Amino acid sequence: MVIVLHPFIVSSKEAKVSSMEDTLASAGIRLRTFGWVALTAIAPIAWGSNYYVTREFLPEDSALWGAAIRALPAGLVLLAISRKLPHGSWWWKSAVLGILNIGAFFALVYVVAQLLPSGVAATTMASSAGVLMLFAWLMLGERPARWPMIGALMGFIGVAVMVFDAQGGIDIRGIISSLVAMLCSSAGFILTKRWSQGLPIVRVTAWQLVAGGAVLVPFALLVHGAPPQLGIQAAAGFGYVSLVATAAAYLAWFTGLRQLTASSVGLIGLLNPVTGVLLGTLLAVESLGLQSILGMGMVLGGVLLGLANGSRRKPLPEPELPSRDAPAGQAVKGC
What we know:
Elements (H helix, E strand, L loop, with lengths): L1 E3 L2 H51 L5 H20 L7 H26 L2 H8 L2 H13 L5 H18 L8 H24 L5 H24 L7 H28 L2 H7 L2 H12 L7 H21 L20 E3 L2
Antiparallel strand pairs: 1-2
């Protein structure tokens, strides 16, 4: 017995199956994207907590030693895991990235953490979202979408409002140091994304941590002399900032840079000021003026706006159904 199905009915069923497959595929992509976002978020959360830990538990007058002690142990741990030294051009690339992302950046952040309240320091650094978009556009050709750009602009305005709060008693040296640190790290992050394709992230991270820490040591000896004597509290603080806020955080951040656009990764940095503000307010009992709170609100709102709208995907096109004038239907043989 031969059953002839009308071509419109067959095509309609195929279209429904195809639509379901597209929906499942889209859901799978969104789920994977959410996973990469969650992993990347580990970094700004850890970095936001670093301001409080540095300010409360680490020595105040040894910025270069503080940066070196933070970087070198983290790099050596990851190097032991990867068990691979740099090769070829990666010797000089590791040095460049080590200076931008680690050496100069860590030293400046150490100074910033001592000069600014945790919330102010973390929120100022949040403006790096816009700088990352700009550098990614210029160096990688990743043109940012409209909403992430609007969100970044709101963030810049919010930072300006917060910085010029006359009641906040903000040290201008801390603001300048944080802006220079932001520029160094943004350039270093984009170069890492550009250069590290095809290499294990743990190796790339280890190489630049070791290189950056090694560059810091002679300068620390020249400026500060012998390393500071560390008590139990300071040793525990350095253990946290080295293993958690450095080794684990940079692995998560560089993985996110590889899997997501630079614009999205920059906007995830919103969690940096959120963490800094929460810890500074709850643990360090820091107070903020109304203008600073307004500025922080603009930063948070702008980054959320850019991340939410920039990650929206265009709806999948509806499957086209064949017309009723299609060729003869398909025959399905049965018994």
